[in-house]
Amino acid sequence: MEKAKILLVDDEPDIREFLCYNLKKEGFEVLSAQNGKEAIKLVIQEKPDLIIMDVMMPEMDGIEACEEIRKIPEFQNILIAFLTARGEDYSQIAGFEAGGDDYIAKPIKPKVLISRINALLKRRKLEKPKKKEKEEERKEIVIDREKYLVIINNKELNLPKKEFELLAMLESKPGRVFTREEIYDFVWGDDVVVGDRTIDVHIRKLREKIGEKHIVTIKGVGYKFVN
């Protein structure tokens, strides 16, 4: 079975060399670029299956590059995963809003990265194409991230910080299943020890406030947001 073609975008040569080596060792075809502008050119020329892209880069960063790639009809559904340093909180939301499919914190062990890549490729293979709809016209929930405010059916709702961050993460990519590990990493971070039921409690509180139908449990995996 032919392995996927991956474009690795990072401005640090050592990281590119290290990750390229490990990806090629797994049988992937690997291309590399040092900034967003180079990445866009390679995407058009080579049509990779997956782009792994750093956020902070000179000339054009990963968020900008992702937005530009998504503007090209042919590449609206190409897999894009952001690879960046921990602790850049809302760059994660910005990444998902720009059209990213995943957010991988570095440093990351090669085996873990390979596992995430395979999961992304498998997820895309199982996804069925969906017809585009004018979602904004039928949206019941609007999130104002600058004001930490949620508007539901034209009514304002103030949420505690963790509940807001959890809802904002899920809503940033409607229909995408966020794993429990991804939620823990984004909302609480590695430095905070929380109990196994923490996410469940916050999900229950959110459902009480915004309605049961918007947050769907995917048993054994995580949660997704639906409008």
Q: How would you sum up this structure, described in words?
A:
There is one protein chain. The protein is α/β, with parallel strands linked by helices. Helix content is 42%, strand content 21%. The protein has nine helices and eleven strands. The strands form three sheets. Strands 2-1-3-4-5 form a five-stranded parallel β-sheet, sandwiched between helices. Strands 6-7-8 form a three-stranded antiparallel β-sheet, covered by helices on one side. A three-stranded antiparallel β-sheet has the order 9-11-10. α7 packs across α9 (198-210). Residues 128-138 have low confidence and may be disordered.
Describe how the helices and strands are arranged.
Blueprint: E1 5-9, H1 13-25, E2 29-33, H2 36-46, E3 50-54, H3 62-70, E4 79-85, H4 89-97, E5 102-106, H5 110-126, H6 135-138, E6 141-144, E7 149-152, E8 155-157, H7 161-171, E9 178-179, H8 180-188, H9 198-210, E10 215-218, E11 222-225
Parallel strand pairs: 1-2, 1-3, 3-4, 4-5
Antiparallel strand pairs: 6-7, 7-8, 9-11, 10-11
Helix pairs in contact: 2-3, 7-8, 7-9
